[in-house]
Amino acid sequence: MYVWLINNQFMFDNILISFGLNPSDYTIQPFGSGLINHTLKVSGNAGDFILQQINVNVFKSPEDIAENLSLLNKHFKKTKSDYLFVAPLPAISGDFLVKSASGNVFRLFPFVKGSQTINFISYEKEAFEAAKQFGKFTRLLNEFEIGQLKYILPDFHNLTLRFQQFKTAHQNAPGERLDPASNEIKEVYKHDYILQTYKRLIANNEIPLRVIHHDTKISNILFDEQQNGLCVIDLDTVMPGYYLSDVGDMMRTYLSPANEEEADLSKIHIRENFFYAICKGYLSEMGTVLSETEKKYFIFSGELMIYMQAIRFLTDFLNNDIYYGTKYPGHNLNRARNQFTLLNKYVEAEEKFRQMMIEAERDLSTVPDF
Ligand code: GN1
Ligand code: MG
């Protein structure tokens, strides 16, 4: 990353100039832990910024992202002007995207003063605050006409398609990939009922499309120094979707103290009190917006998203690791194993979750805050 930074100093200088910043007034450093885009912090006496190079192999139409964010920004300005929406800043040209001579695409954000991000959740309060922020985002956009939004990654969380991609990979995989994955392949079929539930839900139009973030990992929340959530960031995958994506991905990434990278499966377990915190945080915003039918699938959302991610990792392993970056042979298979372990533990805890959800809803109707 540092070599990349030094080698591209000339390009960054020109990009900063395009955004109206004098390069000699600023220093640039790598920032955050994102895998897809390159993120940099630009620091100077007059203020700090986040400069991002968009990965156009994944995000093929950055103009669509800029357009979506600009529509949302206008909506917030009109309906809730004090909402902290970290929108990209315009360049001197008025565009939100700047292209370097070599064809790389950049955008600039303000750096929110006093804000910080975390990579692991240690406290229930963090889960509560994050869930509240993701819920608030969708709630404030409840009246927004979603038909205006572009689908940035079509079928991103379409489980039917992910299952189909797995089946194709299964048919085409070489023996040396199939053999070590035989238990995980069985796990896919063992949990086929999740796919059936998902298909029924979609076919019967049981749940509405809403404005959904689609990447609710904890590092996509800005916190202040007292662990209060400030706002959501990383808005590239904001598009129409089901709330199950956001809640389910929080279940997937907040409940276990060990994340998807953990190869020691004994470290994966469910922190049930964190389920309560997610539930209470999300419902404190969305409790009165979600329909009774949507709420019925609240716990299912975790099954859906953990299963989908397990399938995506396994599919990539069978496809010879073409999508996710891997650091060692079998990395994607380990990730799939990790997610199936999490899925089985999640399913075991569901009876407790049902009780906790009742408690959270009861507490929310009597006590206004956490
Ligand atoms: C990818 O790179 P990152 O962590 O932002 C993926 C998500 C997965 C995640 C799993 C565009 O996100 O859907 O949940 O990996 N994003 C894309 O770690 O595919
Ligand atoms: Mg992301």
In short:
48% of the residues lie in helices and 11% in strands. It is an alpha+beta fold. The structure holds 2-acetamido-2-deoxy-1-O-phosphono-alpha-D-glucopyranose and magnesium ion.
Commentary on this structure:
It is a single chain. This protein is an alpha+beta fold. The protein has 2 domains: about 1-110, Phosphorylase Kinase, domain 1, CATH 3.30.200.20; about 125-365, Aminoglycoside phosphotransferase (APH), C-terminal lobe (Aminoglycoside 3'-phosphotransferase, Chain: A, domain 2). The chain has helices at about 1-5, 10-20, 60-80, 125-140, 160-170, 175-180, 180-190, 190-205, 245-255, 270-285, 290-295, 300-320, 330-350, 350-365, and strands spanning about 25-30, 40-45, 45-55, 100, 105-110, 210, 220-225, 230, 240. The strands form 3 sheets. A 5-stranded antiparallel beta sheet has the order 1-2-3-5-4, with no helix packed on it. A two-stranded antiparallel ribbon has the order 6-9. A two-stranded antiparallel sheet has the order 7-8. The protein is globular, with a radius of gyration of 21 Å. The structure holds 2-acetamido-2-deoxy-1-O-phosphono-alpha-D-glucopyranose (GN1) and magnesium ion. Magnesium ion binds near residues 36, 215 and 234.
